[in-house]
Design a protein that fits this description.
Blueprint: H1 9-14, E1 17-21, E2 24-28, H2 33-44, E3 49-52, H3 63-76, E4 84-90, H4 97-106, E5 109-114, H5 134-143, E6 147-149, H6 163-178, E7 184-186, H7 192-199, E8 205-209, H8 218-222, H9 239-249, E9 256-258, H10 267-270, H11 285-295, H12 302-314, E10 322-327, E11 337-340, E12 343-346, E13 356-358
Parallel strand pairs: 2-3, 3-4, 4-5, 5-6, 6-7, 7-8, 8-9
Antiparallel strand pairs: 1-10, 10-13, 11-12
The structure holds N-carbamoyl-L-aspartate and zinc ion (ZN).
N-carbamoyl-L-aspartate binds next to loops.
Length: 360
Amino acid sequence: MPLETRSGLRYLRAMHSITLPRPDDWHLHLRDGAMLKAVLPESARHFARAIIMPNLVPPVVTLDDAVAYRDRILAALPGGMAFEPLMTLYLTEGTDRADVERAAASGLVKAVKLYPAGATTNSHSGVRDLTKVMPVLEVMARIGLPLCTHGEVTDSHVDIFDREAVFIDTVLDPLRRRLPELRVVMEHITTEEGVAYAAGGGANLAATITTHHLIINRNHILAGGIKPHYYCLPVAKREKHRLALRKAATSGLPRYFLGTDSAPHVDALKEHACGCAGCFTATNTMSLLAHVFEEEGALDRLEGFVSHHGPAFYGLPVNQGTITLEKRPEPCAWPEKIHAEPGPVTVFQPGFPVHWHVVT
Ligand code: NCD
Ligand code: ZN
């Protein structure tokens, strides 16, 4: 449908400022030590809370690990900034179900993360055989603690562009049939199959979508020279999948919400013969999303995607504070890099000018 025929367009055209409840990021990598210190303000500047990924080395496996990591995050937060880390546990084949139950009861741990072993950065301690973690998953289903899934199979004979769709068919769907009460977040979906599966999954299923997967497809990574800063996992797919993700994110449906998967790696490890996966989008995500939602004629749905749908799924209140973005004639000027002590981290550049400035 041409944009001109959409109702409400006049209103959207006139919209140069939007104020939303302070957003949350439902999938974030903060790392540890000096890197944590450098990247945390980039998220805390705009986001009130984030689901913190546990793939440190060694991983955050137990409640004690999560409490200690949360303390380090809060200690790294600059004075005057407010930010609530929502902790996750890294599921291993040795995870103790009593510890998971205690972690949920503590209120500090909001989810458990499933990494199929070998799927992505620091996933070697992940799960090889799902039957080994069924007792833990049964506890989680009983107490309502969500499972966040990195939804890719790792079999070397499955093409990397098919790994998400194969995961849905061979791992996720059988698991959900066996344990329908288990609450699941399909993290960083990248395919139309992911969008469709999440759409039909009922109240116990949700999906996060990253900022960069709304902007790049696989051509951006590979055509005209390899762009290591666009390489992440799950890898960006064909254009039709990017369009399906845009439709889902801007649909207004509560089962889709933002998880940036902002994942800092120093340039030396991105621009490498065997480059690390991860896009660093914490700095400019809100501006980029306003741009994308406006392009889709759906600025009025940005609020649901970034501020309401996530808290509703996780059973948390919507944030009290607000964030305001203004559309200005001059494009946003982000730093090209964040200067972390371990080395520079390149900020995701969309490749087009963006005019939505975060003003408060
Ligand atoms: C993440 C990382 O670097 O930790 N990388 C990525 O490409 N997304 C891991 C992950 O979430 O898969
Ligand atoms: Zn991630």
